[in-house]
Amino acid sequence: MSHNDSTLNFEEINKQFIHWFCSNGGTISPKISFKDYSSENAGRGVVSVDDIEPFEVLFNIPHSIVLSEKTSSLKDLISSSEFEMLSKINSWFPLILCMMYESQKENSLWKPYFDILPREFDTPMFWNEDDLSELEGTGVIDKIGKADAEKQFNDHFLPIIQSNSSIFDSNIHNLELFHCMGSLVMANAFQDKIRNKNIEENQDKNEEDEENEDEEDEKEEITMMPMADMLNHKTGFNNARLFRDKGLLEMTAIKKIKKGEQIYNTYGELCSADLLRKYGFVDENNMYDIVELNGQFVVNTLSIEEDTKNKKIEMLLEEDILDDIFVLDTTYEIPPELIITAKVMRMDKAQFKKLQKSEKFPEPKMNLDIKQPLIQLFEKRLAMYKTSIKDDEEISKSNNISLRIKYIIVTRLGEKRILQNLLNNLNDWNGDDERETNRKKRKIKD
After folding, report:
1. Residues facing residue 36 across a β-bridge
2. pLDDT tens, residue by residue, 253-288
3. Which phi and psi (to 5°) does residue 71 adopt?
4. Residue 31 in contact with residue 52, Cβ under 8 Å?
5. pTM for the model
6. Domains and CATH numbers, the chain
């Protein structure tokens, strides 16, 4: 994570944060320390200063300093109905409002925490139009939502700010601060369930236990956890995770960590597009890269019968075969739903009439009838990018490109190589070795 050093230097901010953290009941292992990873484009991170064994506790976080709508003093100053209204619109919104308040409160319990958090971001939300245009075709561009965020602020936050003028100052608690706190929540907040302490038992937990836990705690709280969010992420390098043990939150090593190694939490199995959108960085050769095919784009490209097109779409939707998005990933397999959709959309009137009568959909098995239509689909999707694979590979060789452009190229290449591999496989396939794909449908999360 990058840091906020506008008024204090790196070491002084670290010192004040650690003093605050430990004074409020937190504990930190002497085997870890903060380190400036700016030279690696990662900002502040946590490093091991001694060998660490699996299951060693790296630090404990007391619940009293976890920042949420329940712990913020703002809950005592504005009506619960205002919080409820925000929560119904977006589960993040109450926390964002609390952070807007606490971050500007001089005597806030969390002041040393806000001092160590970044105030400047290089996520696409803050990019200029020229750089955003370079993301054309990627899975980033349609998910930034800057205009929508501004509308949400004006429609829902601003009325609360203006009606509570003794608490908020509309000149300070403004759209810029809203974007800043929203970016912090997107990058740093914890919203998944915290695992139980016993790592081995947790890994073996059966689905029934997980379902029971879900029923017990249906409402998932969005929180900011000081110290936990100081750990960086690197795909494939996760060596620590957060667990709950007897009411305490513990960051625990999940494997041996050698002296001098960086300690990494995991932000999840995220593709480059999501890493860039949420955190402002990417990992090269990301095994979790994906390409999204818009469902409407798919049916429009594959359809051959305009008269029956809408009926076909209706049937596919009813059977949950057609989705808003089809996902292609680094397995280079064609999703079964896409195969079925291609077969249905390529049916002539007689074939479709037979399907309507039998209601028996074709098997998700490749055949030569849909080979060329799928090739055309992937080629058309590949043409949505501003550059070719060769173009990007040439640009990436330059020593004069900015870090932002480098991240854009990594994102574009990750997606384009998936499409190119699928095209190569299809072009090489001659109908032999027909195999039914049993891959489960994947859904994209924001």
Report:
1. 44
2. 999 999 999 999 999 999 999 999 999 999 999 999
3. -100, -20
4. yes
5. 0.87
6. 10-270 (3.90.1410.10), 290-428 (3.90.1420.10)
